[in-house]
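Fill in residues.
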């Protein structure tokens, strides 16, 4: 009986705990060991990502954000999601209320919190997808090819990364149409019951 209770408690705790690759930083944010640590010069980060054959993604989070926690524990811990992102994107984390210095694409120097305000990002997590090459005289919010504010389920989350990687924003198929098509394909393959 006691052994069964201990096993049950252990299983419950293991489902609630962050993945082994996730830690909590001094700023209270979850840290994936594959997130890039940079000087937060956005043009430089776009170039670095391009040199790696990837795209730059910025993720705005905040301490105590339950949706950010869910993103790390349910989405970024899923090997299908994490492997796809790691293979195709360089991810840089931003603290919505942080004081780290940021250099915008227009050359302006800000803190993370003033950058979030300038760019109009008010939800956490907010995921910002940048173009393959750094444009001049634009802000991050003007240059972004897509922005995903808030938390979503696995397939919406993963499909947004796929849509950007496939440059869906350049075509005629809106993300919502793309997502619906992928969901239907997954259902036909028997990989999805509900989404």
């Amino acid at each position: 009986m006691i052994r069964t209770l201990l096993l049950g408690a252990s299983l419950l705790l293991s489902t609630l705990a962050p993945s082994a690759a996730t830690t909590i930083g001094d700023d209270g944010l979850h840290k994936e060991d594959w997130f890039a640590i940079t000087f937060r010069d956005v043009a430089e980060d776009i170039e670095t990502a391009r040199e790696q054959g990837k795209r730059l993604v910025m993720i705005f989070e905040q301490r105590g954000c339950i949706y950010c926690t869910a993103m790390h524990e349910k989405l970024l811990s899923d090997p299908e999601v994490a492997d796809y992102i790691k293979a195709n994107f360089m991810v840089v984390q931003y603290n919505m209320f942080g004081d780290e210095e940021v250099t915008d694409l227009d050359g302006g120097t800000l803190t993370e919190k003033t950058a979030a305000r300038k760019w109009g990002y008010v939800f956490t997590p907010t995921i910002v997808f940048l173009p393959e090459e750094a444009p001049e005289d634009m802000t991050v919010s003007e240059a972004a090819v897509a922005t995903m504010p808030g938390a979503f389920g696995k397939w919406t989350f993963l499909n947004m990364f796929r849509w950007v990687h496939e440059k869906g924003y350049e075509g005629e198929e809106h993300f919502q149409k793309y997502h619906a098509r992928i969901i239907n394909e997954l259902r036909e393959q028997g990989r999805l019951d509900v989404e």
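Helices lie at 2-16, 42-51, 66-75, 79-88, 112-119, 140-143, 154-165, 175-188.
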